[in-house]
Specification:
Blueprint lengths: L12 H9 L8 H9 L4 E4 L6 H11 L3 E5 L3 H13 L4 E4 L5 H13 L4 E4 L7 H7 L4 E6 L19 H4 L8 E5 L4 H10 L7 E3 L7 E6 L4 H11 L3 E5 L3 H13 L4 E4 L5 H12 L5 E4 L12 E6 L6 H8 L9 E6 L2 H14 L3 H15 L10 E3 L2 H8 L3 H13 L3 E4 L6 E5 L3 H5 L5 H14 L8 E3 L1 H8 L3 H13 L3 E4 L6 E4 L13 H23 L5 H8 L12 H27 L6 H8 L3 H13 L3 E3 L5 E3 L2
Parallel strand pairs: 1-6, 1-7, 2-4, 2-5, 3-4, 5-6, 8-13, 9-11, 9-12, 10-11, 12-13
Antiparallel strand pairs: 14-19, 15-19, 16-17, 16-18, 20-21
Length: 643
């Protein structure tokens, strides 16, 4: 693999672009990013939402020999990208938790021995045995990391599973990495390059300006009426973002009552229902989708005309990502933030729940372990179905506080809340094959089930294997319920480590359960993250409360753009333009009045008649010139210039 990437093909990147995508030229910065990768350089590309990120790794993947691995946490994006590539005749596959074990094995085998050009994979799958075994045999041309800000502990959306990506480099040391994100400050950018083991710093930055996107903040009046005004006055489809699931349902219902074709979307809906609502909105069957921030990641709909936020986000990174889903086709679109003073106060209060006291985090850990009946020293590598609402009701804690405590526990590699809909069952034996034969539990049913497992799955004594309980039941001629019951018996006997299949969120233990006194959460890291969250919110507050700074310029400067200019189309710029236009009109009236008076005294009635237009405005200008002592009223009642 020690060859210059740029010499691997004689076909030009322009030819690839036109042949497979039908475009004759690249968008700004796409060419520079592609050429950097083809020259073998690790590259961090900072590109705005809708800037054409996927082209920057798909084109070089086709220009080079071998397989491009694309790491992304977004299952929706994986499916969408793979479908699009396959429709174009490009061989691509996706590996994520929604696939059954057999399909995952086939996909990985095709990447190892077949002609697959692009493998989309979720970061948590990088450490699975199935992937690591095949990784050694894959001819990897490059590694693309989407949503790369997730690798930074100081970013707004840190995900520990992203730290696994650098390990892939051990098997492909000459494959360049292309890290992509639409929201990274200078500090986060440096952290990304550090964690991905860049050979040298290499940042290519596209402009964060969106010339067709008009940013607007409305901070007065009725929020609902302001939102309805936008929806009724701006043709086309749109998104309305809410903070809570209940809020999305209530708002969508009210919009329907007011004649708007609307539906709601949040992570609490069944996966099939979410997919259906997403497709109906994308296809134009639903005009407005009211959603939590669970909606939109990886959704490529070019003709979104408006994105409305019913409340402030807690960071400009999050706001820019979500607002940027409007106007990807280049036509005029609107990003509207409905704000009020108490929004800021509410978010400030949220910091207390987002960063619970360290002792309270340890208490949540202890309560979850007790709730799941995981003993001290047990649980390492195990997952358990976890109904957070039932847990919070049982222990009398706020679900928001528990969710945020879990985020901090995940960042400290203790346990993680995995909100996935299709988790296949996993199993690994903890005893030897000989010990298994001596097992005396469960009678003939147990023997039949164990025989089925040993026949169907290899490697279950050395690592976790995905299993299909229906397949085992069919092979052993048992009911699925009986198989599930027998597996639980084996788990309680410590014969197996067992993760049940589930369509509910799961708690995953990164390590065995620790006594509360041994739980360590670094206070300096905790305080630093808290301070960074406050900084991000203050930047959001500055954007929201500005009365004289261009909204787009605030965003561009936040992301480090050195030569940001006023956009001319946000509410602040439009307001300034109107003031200038109004000022020019007034100056023109003043000039006409003074010109008429230069020849002597004139009555107010004659001035109004001569200038024409609104008599009230002319009278106001006469009053203004009188107050400035530029003119005065003579004894005869006429107006004259003061000498």
């Amino acid at each position: 693999m020690n060859i210059n990437k740029a010499e691997q093909t004689n076909i030009s990147i322009e030819t690839i672009l036109e042949k497979w995508w039908g475009y004759k030229e690249f968008r700004p910065m796409q060419r520079e990013i592609i050429e950097s990768v083809l020259q073998g350089h690790d590259t961090l590309a900072l590109m705005p939402t809708g800037g054409g990120k996927s082209i920057t790794y798909q084109v070089p993947a086709l220009a080079m020999e071998g397989l491009c691995i694309v790491v992304t946490p977004l299952i929706a994006l994986m499916k969408d990208q793979v479908d699009q590539l396959q429709r174009r005749g490009i061989s691509a596959v996706a590996v994520h938790s929604g696939l059954d074990p057999r399909r995952i094995e086939i996909a990985l085998d095709n990447c190892t021995y077949g002609d697959v050009k692009m493998l989309y994979i979720a970061p948590e799958r990088l450490e699975t045995e199935a992937f690591r075994v095949r990784l050694r045999r894959m001819n990897i041309s490059m590694i693309a990391v989407d949503e790369a800000h997730c690798i930074s502990q100081w970013g707004y959306d840190f995900r520990p599973s992203y730290l696994n990506i650098a390990k892939v480099r051990e098997f492909a040391p000459d494959a360049p990495i292309l890290a992509l994100t639409a929201s990274a400050t200078e500090e986060v950018a440096k952290d990304i390059m550090h964690h991905l083991h860049f050979g040298s710093e290499n940042i290519l930055r596209s402009s964060f300006a969106r010339p067709n996107l008009s940013y607007v903040v409305r901070d007065s009046g009725d929020k609902y009426e302001n939102m309805l005004r936008v929806i009724n006055n701006v043709p086309g489809s749109g998104i309305v973002y809410m903070r809570t699931r209940e809020g999305t349902e209530q708002l969508a219902e009210q919009l329907r009552k007011d004649g708007v074709n609307a539906n709601y979307y949040h992570a609490g809906l069944p996966s099939m229902e979410r997919a259906l609502r997403q497709d109906e909105w994308r296809e134009g069957k639903t005009r407005v989708i009211v959603a939590t921030n669970a909606f939109g990641m990886g959704i490529d709909k070019a003709d979104v005309r408006f994105v409305i936020h019913f409340a402030m986000c807690d960071s400009l990174e999050a706001y820019y990502q979500e607002a940027g889903r409007a106007g990807r086709d280049g036509r005029r679109s609107y990003a509207v933030l409905l704000a009020e003073q108490r929004d800021g106060e509410s978010i400030a209060k949220l910091f207390k729940t987002e960063f619970p006291p360290i002792d309270e985090i340890k208490r949540v850990y202890e309560l979850i372990c007790n709730y799941l009946q995981v003993a001290i020293g047990d649980g390492c590598g195990a997952s358990f179905a976890f109904n957070i609402y039932d847990f919070c009701h049982t222990v009398k804690l706020s679900s928001i506080m528990v969710t945020n405590a879990l985020k901090i526990l995940e960042q400290n590699r203790l346990m993680a809340l995995i909100d996935e809909q299709d988790n296949p069952a996993k199993l690994m034996f903890t005893c030897s094959r000989d010990a298994l034969y001596k097992l005396n539990a469960g009678g003939n049913d147990m023997d039949a089930m164990l025989l089925a497992i040993l026949r169907l799955y290899n490697g279950v004594f050395t690592s976790f294997r995905n299993i299909d309980e229906l397949q085992i039941a069919s092979f052993a001629k048992l009911s699925p319920e009986r198989v599930h019951e027998l597996l639980k018996i084996l788990w309680r006997m410590h014969v197996i480590r067992y993760i049940p299949a589930a369509r509910t969120p799961m708690i995953y233990f990164d390590s065995e359960r620790l006594p509360q006194k041994d739980i360590y959460i670094a206070p300096e890291t905790y305080r630093y993250r808290y301070n960074k969250a406050v900084e991000r919110f203050n930047s959001m507050l500055r954007y929201t409360t500005s009365i004289d700074e261009c909204r787009s310029k605030i965003i561009e400067e936040y992301f480090g753009e050195p030569n940001a200019k006023d956009c001319g189309i946000c509410d602040i710029c439009i307001s300034k333009r109107k003031k200038v236009a109004s000022s020019n009109v007034l100056d023109n009236i003043d000039t006409q009045i003074l010109s008429m008076l230069s020849d002597g005294e004139v009555s107010i009635k004659d001035i109004v008649a001569a200038i024409g237009g609104r008599s009230e405005l002319i009278a106001e200008r006469i009053d203004y010139l009188l107050s400035e002592k530029k003119i005065s009223v003579s004894i005869s009642g006429k107006v004259k210039i003061n000498k």
